[in-house]
Structures are given as structure tokens and as C-alpha cells.
Write the C-alpha cells for this entry.
Amino acid sequence: MKIAILGTGYVGLVTGTCLADCGNEVTCIDKDAGKISGLLQGRLPIYEPGLEELVERNGREGRLRFTTDLAEGLRGSQIVFICVGTPQSETGAADLSTVFAVAEAIAKNAEDSKLVVVKSTVPVGTNAKVFEILSKAKIQHRAASNPEFLKEGAAIDDCTKPDRVVVGVRDQQSTDLLRELYAPFLRTERPFLVMSPESAEMTKYVANAMLATKISFINEMANLCEMTNADINDVRRGIGHDARIGFQFLFPGAGYGGSCFPKDIRAVISMASEKGMDSRILLSVDEVNEAQKLRLGQKITGHYQGILKGKVFAIWGLAFKPRTDDIREAPALVLIHNLLAAGAKCRVHDPEAMGNVRAQLGDRIEYLDRPMDAVQGADALVIVTEWQEFRSPDFAKLATNLTDKVIFDGRNLYEPKAPAAFGLTYHSIGRATTQG
């Protein structure tokens, strides 16, 4: 099957590459000439484990192409995926200007009939507006919705081994074509769920809203545990074995970030407001999460009795989650800004995200290539992202290098007794502080 992908960001590049890898001919189109030039030379605009190899192989074998020429990229394609960004506007609603501009460009440039599939995360009713735009063309096009459920750091598996595929369609021909396209990914009897475009659009938002709610809930309970001498890890185990609750997304931490949860929660709040409805639960979810991003800074300030000027902090983890270089809405950035404002210095390490942080903060902080290099000359260690390589550190070496012998762990990576055995004071989330 011949596929065109409009947008080579996270969703577009992963989706296009995975579709090419199962035999389709895919052309990825982007107006950013620099991005396309980089892709043609093997430079990816994002980090995702395993993606670079797949792009290189499918490009070499002629199944995956990149171009800035929209008309050429659309030529011969049966399905066109819209995978452009929908950033948060000043009102909190999703900015759909690029989605609609792309739809207009398809209507103007397509030489034959297309199935235009909106994969971008968009509010309910967007697909109907896209179809209205396409209807103005001389050629008859169809429109469908197919929300993505990709987790950064595990996106290839999520694309090729999905829990389910959701499609919003209005005609049987579109249903059959999308079912054929996704058949290679559904061989393990995962469901292909057919519904209206409005239900498909809402499904994506509701899924992210539920997951974000679980994160804010467990973070609020973790803070309560600290005040009541309970241990959130014990509580988490106590509730997670309840089949009605489960363990997923019940890990307390420094708050969620990234390109999806914060933006999507606010988009749902905005959608509800436009309909005259107060989304009280999601307003609280967002408020709790923004407050949680301050939690590590509050622990640091409390430990040092408000005097941070001249202190040096080693910070492990800058990306909003491990296995990505994405720093959008990252808790680490909130912490760093607050530490710098208080007169402290930061020595940071992240396996993938340092380049993106440097582009924002420049030389205001110091970047180190290895975790232990960041610790040298630091007063304390702060862990913000749970990269695998941070899970088994040399506590003896940490105790030797950290002037104040203290760790602030925003991801509960260690059993409290482990660092304490080496004379390290250990602060974590939802558990009592252990003194070294």
C-alpha cells in the first residue's frame, strides 16, 4: 500500500517508519527543509530506541522516503496521515491551525481521491471540519480519525504491537482499507475498534486523562504518607494487588511532563468549558501535578533551611521520562530554574536530553558526560528521571564525593537503607527520610 505521512515529528516519523517496515511504500512530508535534509542524511530529529536503525534500513530498501514537496509526496498514495502538532494555545485549547492548513493543502494538491486520516491529537469535531475542508476540492476525499497511543521510549512496540487500534470512520470503504493496513500489527488478536470520528477523538483524550489522574492521585497520596509516617511503596503494593486498581501508573514521583499529558489535560478542560461544564477532576489533576513539580525543590529548601546560595547540586535526569530526549514540561527544568533563582549551581547529566537543555539554558548550568562526573564537586545529588543506569550507583563513591552526603530522589529508585548504610541522608517521595 502507498502511504503519505504529513509531519515528521514524533508521531509521523515513528508511524511512517513502522508502516514501511511491514512492506508499505511510505513518503514522509514536512515543510521544514532542515529536518528533511537531516533525515535524508540519516540524522533523526528525535531520539527513540531502535528508530534510527529502522529508518536507515527502510530508506536503504526504498520503502521510506522523505520530501518537502507536498504534491510529489501525495502522488499515488491511497492513505494520507495528518501527523502535525497541536500545541496548547493561550486559552489552553489545542491549536488546530496546522491541521486545517494541511487539510487545505491536501485538497489543493491531491490529484486523485484520498483517505485522509487525522492521527494528531485533536478535540472532538476536528475530523468533521477536516472533511468539510476536503469537500471543497473538485475530487471527492474521505476523512477518518486514528488516534495514536505511543509512549515515548517504547513507541516502536506500541506501534507494531498495539493494545488496540482505534479508528473513527463514516463509511465501510474506509473501515476496510484501514483494517487491511493494520492487519500485520493485529495478528495476536488485538482488537480493531471501529467507531465514529467523534468517539475516536474523545478516546485519545479520555485515555490520557485517566492515566494522568492516576499519577496525580498517587503523588497526592505519597505526600499524605509523608505526613502520617506511612510508606507509599507499601501502600502502593497494598492497593495494586486489587484487580480493580492494578499497578500501572501508580509510581509516585516528581510529576508528569512531556508533550501529551499536560497539553491534553488542559485541552479537555477547555473542551468542557466551551460546553459550559466545569471539569473539576481534571482541573485538580493539573493543579496537583504542577504542585508536585515543586516537591523536590521544597525538600531541598527544607533540608538547607532556605539557604541555597553557593550550593552545588548534581542533577541526574533532565528528560521528562527515561528513554527519550524530550524535555517538554519536564520537572527537571522547573527544579533547575528554581535552584538557579536561589543562587545555587547545577551540574547535570542525562543520557540523551542534554543537547535540548543546552539549547534552552546555554551555559547557565554545567553538562557532564557521565553521572559520577556530575557528582564531583557537588554538595548534594538530585535524581529527577529514572534512567536505568541510575538504579545501582556506587554509594561509597557518592558518599566520598558529595560534600553534604545527601541524596534527593524524586523517583524512589533505592531502598532507603541502602544509601543510609554509607552515611548518606536520603530523601524520597512518600517515605520517611533516612539519616546516614
Q: What stands out?
A: The chain has 18 helices and 14 strands. The radius of gyration is 24 Å.
